[in-house]
Amino acid sequence: MNGALPGRADAVVIGSGGLGAATAFHLARAGLHVALLDKAGIASQSSPRAAGLSGTLRADDLMTRIAADAVRRIETFEADTGEPLVFHQPGSLKVARREEHAEQLLDEVARGRGLGLDVAMVPPDEARRLMPFLCTEGVRAVMHMRTDVYLEPRQIPEGYARAAARLGAAVLPHTPVQEIVTEGGAVAGVRTPRGVIWAATVIDAAGGWLRQVAALGGANVGVVPTRHQLMVTVPLAGVRPDQPITRVIDANVYVRPEKGGLMLGGYEPDPLQTDLAEMPAEFEIKDLPLDLEVLRGLARSVEAQFPVFRDVAVQEHRGGLPTMTADGEHVLGPAPGVPGLWIIGGCCVGGLTTAPTLGALLAEWIVDGQTSMDLSSMAPGRKAAALPEPDLAERCRLQYAHHYWSPASMPADDAN
Ligand SMILES: Cc1cc2nc3c(=O)[nH]c(=O)nc-3n(C[C@H](O)[C@H](O)[C@H](O)COP(=O)(O)OP(=O)(O)OC[C@H]3O[C@@H](n4cnc5c(N)ncnc54)[C@H](O)[C@@H]3O)c2cc1C
């Protein structure tokens, strides 16, 4: 996956994380000549650092349908791409410790069942049987989403990139896009240090760098790269891979089995927001400063439910820069005012496991001129993606800090 730079392509995809690689694969499968470029190694930035959890029941019906469809594509990933994917399907538990979150779960179950999902409330004892590390004292209600999966994160972008290459895509690591070339206001190609690729369709899938790349084409996309971290404990007696992902709503913390230990990640109230325009050009996610104390604090916030994390040794600590949006929706569609430029990002810490479907939808839109789902709420030009900077940063912080809260229990929102 390191060939010659093609002089022309039908479509250039900028960024080989989950979203870019999935888009490139689906475009190549539709018969387009595709170039997939990355300024760093293929699949080397935020995507391989993800927790790899699906969360099928999302804040609205569109996102839920997308997440459910993505789980089906994860189940058939190996057959579709010819690439390996290690995944487990133990389902997930969502734990309410406050009355308003118990009500939230009842609403979510009703909504999920209405959408045909295999989801139900379970008694706390049953939740503990499924996840023996969960202590249920103080737990008011638990929801069980039976089809949720967790997977090996790097295999999604790596697999799609390799499969795209087999379909004829030029997959080019260490090839930064320095300029989006326009002619008469429309996209005409991209300039890299290795030369120009002429293409009338360019896709910005640059992850944390989404805004910088959009700006190269004259577009603005309001997303905020936000540090997100997780830790994995040393192996612990009693951990099994078939134990469900467990999320504690009020604390915005998730736990799952990993490498014989338990993974814990979560959403602190005051996350580190980063403007990559202020970072040196050679900055990579591996250079992002991490802070284990944030995770220790999150572990303390769920100590009554997961005392196992008290003073436990850690075998792995990782983090990256997913992008938050002001309304919690992804960003997908044509860049306003720049014909030929398309955007896919604003992952809101959920873009790895939804990439199989988001990439397919974007490819469908580019190839057929329309999509099978109405994606207008994800439009790059919507009001929530064009807020003044301080409002954008604050709305994105609130979305992050209340990640598992329903829109109804979020602070008042006039950003949509
Ligand atoms: C700790 C952690 C846990 C997470 N947990 C989950 C989870 O459980 N489930 C889930 O679905 N998601 C999760 N996420 C979010 C997930 O990682 C992101 O949604 C996903 O990685 C987004 O992929 P991406 O393709 O947008 O970004 P990236 O993987 O960052 O890819 C963007 C690529 O663009 C390239 N690029 C940038 N600028 C240029 C340029 N000018 N020219 C060429 N290339 C360029 C970069 O080098 C990079 O490789 C987690 C993230 C983190 C950090």
Description of the molecule:
- This protein is of the alpha+beta class and 416 residues long.
- The chain has two domains: 11-49 and 154-224 and 326-409, FAD/NAD(P)-binding domain (3-Layer(bba) Sandwich); 88-149 and 226-319, D-Amino Acid Oxidase, Chain A, domain 2.
- It has helices at residues 18-29, 61-75, 77-81, 99-114, 124-130, 155-166, 210-216, 292-301, 355-368, 389-401, and strands at 11-14, 34-37, 87-88, 92-96, 119-122, 141-145, 150-151, 170-172, 179-183, 186-192, 195-198, 201-204, 224-225, 228-233, 245-248, 253-258, 261-266, 314-320, 323-324, 331-334, 341-345.
- The strands form five sheets. It has an eight-stranded mixed beta sheet with strand order 5-6-4-15-16-17-14-18, sandwiched between helices.
- A hairpin with a 6-residue loop joins β20 (331-334) and β21.
- The mean pLDDT is 96.
- It binds flavin-adenine dinucleotide.
- Flavin-adenine dinucleotide binds next to α1, β14 and β18.
